[in-house]
């Protein structure tokens, strides 16, 4: 199956050969292949929409469908999710055969209809859609630049997570510090307020200071393929492979490939 994936990836690189159009993010015989394809599509008003499609081909691809992530500066998050859902629907029709190019061609031909349908649903159900957006379990991936008062900082994060009924991981790997939170979206937002307004760390002179270098890498609803964490744990990893396995076990391979490797650069 790895040979099929490599062959398909090679063909895609030849088709989408302009600079930045096809980028391989990870390639492994044991973890599969992750790559990003960027395409320009004409939308309803004949404006160009730049779609960034992230594909993760698992080791049993094409017997299993790929993980897909969709982003675009011209589309809303909800529209990107609609595009992703439609692509996954199409992927199920192509099981056991290389499908990525077919999926790309399909969305190029149907994007305007997907967006139009999304807009119609949104207009008809604005209030219910806004309410449902807050329902369910959400997941945020946060990145911290450093921790000087590490022991105190960890205790504070653990207390906030407990008080706000949040689960997940505080992860250390070399200089990388990540916080993965799952729970009610409003509670996670409350956590972010605490994180940014409390004197949780110390500066270079040892004085208490607020966290000014936290960034939200990803904010999404927990999907069926994602593992639900039952507790909040602090974990340290010796290698990037160990950290990657943590994400893979949680069904977050695409999340890892898109956001963690760039932190090493």
Describe this structure in words.
This protein has 265 residues and is α+β, with helices and mostly antiparallel strands. It contains 8 helices and 11 strands. The strands form 3 sheets. Strands 10-5-7-6-11 form a 5-stranded mixed β-sheet. Helix 2 packs across helix 3 (100-124). It is globular. The model is unreliable at 122-134 (pLDDT under 50).
* Spans where pLDDT lies below 50 across 5 or more residues: 122-134
Lateral arrangement of strands in the main beta sheet: 10-5-7-6-11
Separation, N- and C-terminal Cα atoms: 31 Å
Secondary-structure element series = HEEEEHHHEHEEHEEEEHH
How many DSSP helices? 8
Q: Which percent band covers the strand fraction? A: 25-35%
Mean pLDDT: 85
Query: Helicity, in percent?
Result: 40-55%
Shape: globular
User: Got a strand count?
Assistant: 11
Q: Give the radius of gyration.
A: 20 Å
**Strand-pairing-aware structural class:** alpha+beta
Largest sheet: 5 strands, mixed
Write a short abstract of this structure:
With 265 residues, the protein is α+β, with helices and mostly antiparallel strands.
